[in-house]
Amino acid sequence: MEEETKINIPQDNTRTEILKHLLGVDLTALDLKEKIGINENAIRKHLDKLENRGFIEHHFEKASRGRPKKYFELTKKGKDLFPKHEIMLLNALLEKVEEEKGEEELEYLFKKASEELQPFFKIDEDLEFDKKIEELAERFNEFNFFCTASKEDARYEMEYRNCVFSGVSEEYAEYACMVHDEIVRSSLKEEIGLEHGESILENGDICTHIIRPEPESTDKR
User: Is the pTM of this model over 0.70?
Assistant: First the structure.
């Protein structure tokens, strides 16, 4: 096994933290220093090692004042370090089910899978809606979605910097998103409007859910 693959072992070390923070967002060494809490020189040494191994790369962006800022981002090799939940095996199984049972049976199985997962994302239905969103983001983070939630007026946005379904074959991406959607709906226990923004399964850097608690909202993709 090559040495660099060891960085994928779950543990609290600085390089792993750097990679997590770079999921879906480009950051400077100073940004990372503030997030991780160690000195900038130490951060830069870790960044150099990660870049030498091909996990990250850098680019410069103009600043409003002074010299351009140096930003770091994950390469494909870096993104591939994050959990994919045995996607290769899953694709083979999905292909076989569709071949033997047809598309309707495949959709049915995905719906049943979403039902089986729902207890892991259960939250108190008596909570205020803001708190429900916060709790749901925490549940998703237990499954390595690296989720953050924000609110603007009555509009909530959940942003996922990692997709545990990434790597699913394109023809099954819709079903994977359906499972994710059903988990959100069942966890919130309210009528919601649910829209999709950027999607990792559609070559985006992040996934987003836009949620409105009003019953009259309609779903959009």
Answer: no
Alpha helices in 26-172 (DSSP H): 29-36, 40-52, 76-79, 87-101, 103-117, 129-142
pLDDT profile of the chain (221 residues), mean per 10: 37 80 92 93 93 94 88 89 68 86 89 89 92 94 90 92 82 88 91 90 89 65 50
Q: Measured on CA atoms in the order 142, 200, 34, 49, is the torsion positive or negative? A: positive
The number of helix segments (H) and strand segments (E) in the chain equals 8, 6
Backbone angles phi, psi at 193, to 5 degrees: -95, 130
134 alpha carbon, distance to own chain's centre: 16
Q: In order of start, what are the domains of the chain with their CATH numbers?
A: 3-79 (1.10.10.10), 87-212 (3.30.1380.20)
Asked if residues 185 and 212 have their Cβ atoms less than 8 Å apart, the reply is no
